[in-house]
Structure formats: C-alpha cells, structure tokens
Amino acid sequence: MAETNSATKDILAVRDLRILFPTRDGRDTVKAIDGMDFEVRAGETFGVIGESGSGKTTLGRALVSLIAPTHGHILHNGTDPESLSTSQFRKHRRDYQIIFQDPNAALNPRMTIIDSVIEPLEVMREGNDASRRKRGVAALERVGLSPETAGRYPHQLSGGQKQRVNIARVLTLRPKVIVCDEVVAALDVSIRGDVLNLFSDLQREFGLTYVFITHDISVVSHVSDRVAVTYLGRLMELGQTEDVIERPFHPYTRALLSSEPVPLPSSMRVDKRIILQGEIPSPVAPPSGCRFRTRCPSVQPRCAAEVPAWRELKPGHSVACHFATVEGPPPDNQNAPRAQ
Ligand SMILES: Nc1ncnc2c1ncn2[C@@H]1O[C@H](COP(=O)(O)OP(=O)(O)OP(=O)(O)O)[C@@H](O)[C@H]1O
Ligand code: SF4
Ligand SMILES: [Mg+2]
C-alpha cells in the first residue's frame, strides 16, 4: 500500500499492526505487537507507557522501520516505507530516527565523539569531511556540549553527556520524527529534568515530532501531549495526557498510576491503593478476550469471552474495556472468580 497524501496531519499512522517473532526453539510465536491502530500528529509528543514486555521497544523500532510489520502497515506522512525502492528508502528513513535507553548503544568506544556524531552523515555521503565536522560541532554545541568534547572518547563522558551526544548524532540528520525509548531511564535522577528540557527546546526549534516511550509516569506527564497505554502488545487507553492521568478509564491505567512510587497530585490519587499484582502473562499465549483479565480487579465472565471493542468514550479519549464509562473504570468485582 503506497499512499501519498501531503495534506495529512498524521506524520505516523499505525494500521492493524502485528509484529510476531519466533520463540527461541522456533516452535511458537511471540505476539509482541498484536493489533494496534493509532496516529501520531506532526509536532506532538506522543507518550507510550506500559510495563516491561508490553511491546514498547518493538513498536518504537517498527515506527522507524528497523523492524518490518508482520501484518498491517505503518505510514510515514501517508507513505508506506515498505513500498519504497532501496534508494528511496535510504533517503526517506533519515527523517525517522530513534534514541535508545543505553547511552553507549550507538557510540563506538574506539571512536572520538565527533567521529560518532558525523558517522550518519558519512553513511549518507552528505557533504565533505570539513562540512560534516562543522555540522557535528554545531550539533554538539546545540545540545549543550563544548567543542572540546569533540575530541574525547565515550568513556571520558558522563551518562548524561553521552545521551546528549546521541541527540546531536541524530540531529545532524535533521529528522522529522524521533522515537525516544526510555532515553532518561539510565540517567541520574538529578539530570533527567535537564535532558527532558533539552528535548522540549529542540522540539520547538526544529518542529520535531516525538514518540516518547517510558515506563515512568512522571516522565510521560512531563513531556507528552497525548499518551497511549500498552499492555501485552495492544492499546488499552489513549488520550490527552492530562485526561488519561487524571481521569483514567481503564483499570490497567488506574493500577499503573497507583503503583507509581512518585508522589502524585491529589487529583490522580484513587480511594484505594491498587498495586499491580502478578506478572504480565506471556505474549506467546495471551489470555483470551481482554488480555488484562487475569490481573483485573473488575473482571467479569464476559471479559474471557470477548475482546473489548476500542471505544471513544470522550472526544479524543478511547479505551478497550467492556465496562469503562465516562465516569471512569468499572468498580472492583469482589465476587466474581478470576477468569483463567
Ligand atoms: N527479536 C525478538 N525475538 C523474540 N522475542 C522478542 C524479540 N524482541 C522482543 N521480543 C519479545 O517481545 C515482547 C515485547 O518486547 P519489548 O522489548 O518490545 O517490550 P518493552 O515493552 O520494550 O519492555 P521493556 O520495558 O522491558 O523494555 C517481549 O516478550 C520480548 O521478549
Ligand atoms: S473489566 Fe474486563 S474488559 Fe475491562 S479491563 Fe477488566 S478484564 Fe478487561
Ligand atoms: Mg523496551
């Protein structure tokens, strides 16, 4: 499918996305992403939150074409990158970049910082050595690193400085979209705010669109315009960050919020503290019906039999739960046995 609609405001459109991996023994299938549909608008920060194993990194990698969808499509500004020729794809994908949690992941320990920063430009054969270096130093300065940093090696920098180098490296390509996968999780708490503020400044300056993947609600509430809540490869809830955090519809979102150790504003507290119990089930054999049902305090017999429809309960605020209402998640069901 190749759509080209320059008038679209959706810089990313995810359509019936499924990403499956074979298990290690090759006998089964990991359903890392098992049916997702959503759009990311140009210029917004779109948060993705969920527990470990819910498919966030797989989604992020797919959004920037590092993994191809097993089923469905991801449209980049209306174009399916899978439909491009190799040379078109090479040019196209510089607009869609990703930064990972580990600040060392993209840095070669034997290369100087400037060589790492300009490496993507060399790969793209852009400019000559002098112009690339000039752009690299300018990018380092823009992310708050002095020109002397250029000649250093990764081991001579702090984690925060290395993450700034990673941002500079991506910036040299002048991307449209940056997927940020837990980009501050490995950093000292004291410097997370500075790095998040840098992301905000760069967004304003360069008109960037971010997909901010995190398991940290305080990060999502700090940076995101909208947030998608993921569980076992599917979306549970999606809406404006303020709405989702202050008036969640889904029992899973409510549980995530109340298990968060950071102090929450009173509007976000729920009457009874709900801690997420038990492990997330295996994505090889997710529960039937609603995949949150094995841990849901509101579970009913219907939840095992029927996959909840995706319902927009309020404009721009959608949920996948049979019993959620505009008032919020359904009440706990003390009597019903937990469905297996
Ligand atoms: N290449 C792969 N081969 C097989 N299984 C994979 C592969 N990549 C991811 N998975 C599995 O897919 C599921 C989702 O993984 P993913 O890394 O996307 O989750 P995540 O939400 O990013 O988790 P975390 O918060 O721990 O980073 C996990 O069960 C994981 O083991
Ligand atoms: S009430 Fe049922 S449908 Fe709603 S989240 Fe719980 S298990 Fe899923
Ligand atoms: Mg991850």
UniProtKB/TrEMBL annotation:
<dbReference type="InterPro" id="IPR050319">
    <property type="entry name" value="ABC_transp_ATP-bind"/>
</dbReference>
<dbReference type="Pfam" id="PF00005">
    <property type="entry name" value="ABC_tran"/>
</dbReference>
<dbReference type="InterPro" id="IPR003593">
    <property type="entry name" value="AAA+_ATPase"/>
</dbReference>
<comment type="similarity">
    <text>Belongs to the ABC transporter superfamily.</text>
</comment>
<dbReference type="InterPro" id="IPR027417">
    <property type="entry name" value="P-loop_NTPase"/>
</dbReference>
<feature type="domain" description="ABC transporter">
    <location>
        <begin position="14"/>
        <end position="257"/>
    </location>
</feature>
<comment type="function">
    <text>Involved in beta-(1--&gt;2)glucan export. Transmembrane domains (TMD) form a pore in the inner membrane and the ATP-binding domain (NBD) is responsible for energy generation.</text>
</comment>
<dbReference type="InterPro" id="IPR013563">
    <property type="entry name" value="Oligopep_ABC_C"/>
</dbReference>
<keyword id="KW-0547">Nucleotide-binding</keyword>
<dbReference type="GO" id="GO:0016887">
    <property type="term" value="F:ATP hydrolysis activity"/>
</dbReference>
<protein>
    <submittedName>
        <fullName>Peptide/nickel transport system ATP-binding protein/oligopeptide transport system ATP-binding protein</fullName>
    </submittedName>
</protein>
<keyword id="KW-0067">ATP-binding</keyword>
<dbReference type="Pfam" id="PF08352">
    <property type="entry name" value="oligo_HPY"/>
</dbReference>
<dbReference type="GO" id="GO:0015833">
    <property type="term" value="P:peptide transport"/>
</dbReference>
<dbReference type="InterPro" id="IPR017871">
    <property type="entry name" value="ABC_transporter-like_CS"/>
</dbReference>
<dbReference type="GO" id="GO:0055085">
    <property type="term" value="P:transmembrane transport"/>
</dbReference>
<keyword id="KW-0813">Transport</keyword>
<dbReference type="GO" id="GO:0005524">
    <property type="term" value="F:ATP binding"/>
</dbReference>
<dbReference type="InterPro" id="IPR003439">
    <property type="entry name" value="ABC_transporter-like_ATP-bd"/>
</dbReference>
<dbReference type="GO" id="GO:0005886">
    <property type="term" value="C:plasma membrane"/>
</dbReference>
